[in-house]
Write a structure and sequence with these properties.
223 residues, alpha/beta, Rossmann fold, Arc Repressor Mutant, subunit A, 2 domains, 47% helix, DNA-binding, Sig_transdc_resp-reg_C-effctor, DNA binding, transcription regulation
Length: 223
């Protein structure tokens, strides 16, 4: 079945462009559009999309609050949120990730990247592009812990290898890159990532990356 997508952006021209790109794909169907967060909530309830392509800065209700309500415990459906951000990165993207977004995409990304991001998020995975992730977390270094804060108790539930994997996830490495770095198989890495998410009560790799920085396990700018 086709992936059902809701487009949320306060610029009609951008929504039209996204619609043209996505409707050219046989496995994707644009089921609706919204110009702000409040409209998005109504459309999510009415249309039950699989993926919401969500702008951040919009009138009435911004994309952060809309994301929080769509993906929160009281949500009406299984919709995943893919956040749209400008090239220089919106100041609220970290908050959107905390609110439950499954990833983020630059507004000027090539068409094939937009399509791939929709498919990745719809499959239940996180859209965690390494280069953008590093830029994002380094940009917000002043908003994240310095690394001197006490380590959360939940972090002590991880094994040493799981901590290693979490650090690499936080730095934007893919499973293949982590496997090469640790000299293990990708299957082993996937198992470790799964254990990390379960033990820490996290939904996906995006939340794992944010957790690693917020807990002080990884410092912004560190290699």
């Amino acid at each position: 079945m086709a992936i059902r997508v809701l487009l949320v952006d306060d610029q009609p021209l951008l929504r039209t462009g996204f619609r043209m790109i996505l409707e050219a794909e046989q496995d994707i169907a644009v089921v609706g559009e919204a110009g702000d967060g409040l409209q998005a909530l109504d459309q999510v309830r009415a249309l039950q999309p699989d993926v919401v392509l969500m702008d951040i800065r919009m009138p009435r209700m911004d994309g952060v609050e809309a994301t929080r309500q769509i993906t929160g415990p009281e949500r009406d459906g299984p919709a995943k949120v893919l956040v749209l951000t400008t090239f220089d990165l919106d100041e609220y993207v970290v908050e959107a990730l905390r609110a439950g977004a499954s990833g983020f995409l630059l507004k000027d990304a090539p068409a094939n990247e937009l399509v791939q991001a929709i498919r990745v998020v719809a499959s239940g995975e996180a859209m965690l592009a390494p280069s953008i992730t590093r830029r994002l977390l380094d940009k917000y270094a002043t908003h994240l812990p310095s690394g001197e804060e006490p380590v959360p108790d939940t972090l002590h539930t991880l094994t040493d290898r799981e901590v290693e994997v979490l650090k690499l996830v936080a730095r934007g490495l893919s499973n293949a890159e982590i496997a090469a770095d640790l000299f293990v198989s990708e299957t082993t890495v996937k198992t470790h990532v799964g254990h990390v998410l379960t033990k820490l009560g996290l939904r996906d790799r995006v939340q794992a990356a944010v957790y690693a920085y917020e807990s002080g396990l990884v410092r912004p700018g560190a290699q």
